[in-house]
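Quick one: sequence plus zinc ion SMILES, need structure tokens.
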Amino acid sequence: MQHTSPEFVPTPASGEASSPIDNPIDNQERYSRQILFPGIGAAGQARLAEAHVCIVGCGATGAASAALLARAGVGTLTLIDRDFVEPSNLQRQILFDEADALQALPKAEAARRKIAQFNSGIEVRAYVTDLVPGNIAGLTGTSHLILDATDNFETRYLINDFAVQQARPWIYAAAIGAYAATMNILPLPASASDARWEPTSCLACLFSKPPSGPVETCDTSGILSTAVNLAASIQVTEALKFLTGQSALMRRTLLSFDLWTSERSEIATAKPRKGCAVCDHREFSHLSGESRPHITLCGRNSVQIHEHHRPVDFAAMRDRLAPHGRVRFNDLLLRFEREPHTLTLFADGRAIIQGTTDVTVARSLYARFIGS
Ligand SMILES: [Zn+2]
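Reply:
Sure thing.
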């Protein structure tokens, strides 16, 4: 398979490379307890081995869902994440360790390496990039199912547009504070003769637009690791039903549960809504990139700039930046620290500037040190 994206991290040829042929662990033994579970069985396990799931976001929920799917034996995982590991992630992002945080390793690649240590018999593709309208078709590729593990509604509405357009199922999941929420989206089939499942509401059926104004994030409201793991557990269990051909068993509600108060609520999502702009009128405004900002606040006092797409020569950049502050780089990213800001530059020219929420300041730092 060809991967043309410059952000794709190829599997190295060293000993950590996954190779189903060399894998000394017998799959019958490895998956024996899951095969014993009547809902999966040997036939279900065989289907999981053939399945391909794309996980968008590899933070807390994405890492947990990736770990669960990898251990369950889903044959191919695509992981997409734009961010790098930081010390504040270690409290809940279960695939990462202290060395990852000290190196500021990109999360998708750190997750791929960690999964290879406990299941080398599956294929994991890691993409260090921001999911945008221009790359969503290429990156999600031939996956059967898309799992949302993002931290923003902009990307969720993009996934919803794409999934409805392509009639590809996706599963929303979110966690904040002690609260977890998740919803299965089974889009209308492309044609009636192609119906493989009973369609549900889409995200836009319930909420026609992304929330406006400030949205609570784990950087502002805090988060319990248990809420993350609950969201991931429910999301992955629904995924297992789908991948083993049991979509009729999938929950048809938006479920939310507060682990601290034990309050639970469900909103029915049994059917697509007549008049929904996305699934009824097939208007894909997020997929067409209308009104999509190139500069976004991305929580924890930082701004992401992704309007410049060009390859970056890290060694040359290091020489240029060294007189102005502390510079470190590896194959995947370069970090430039100049009090009170830290600028993290990725190989495609995308940057995250920490230490400000002022877009003007971020843009001027980028222009001054990286180039406009
Ligand atoms: Zn809809």
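The chain has two domains: 8-268, 295-369. DSSP finds 13 helices and 15 strands in the chain.
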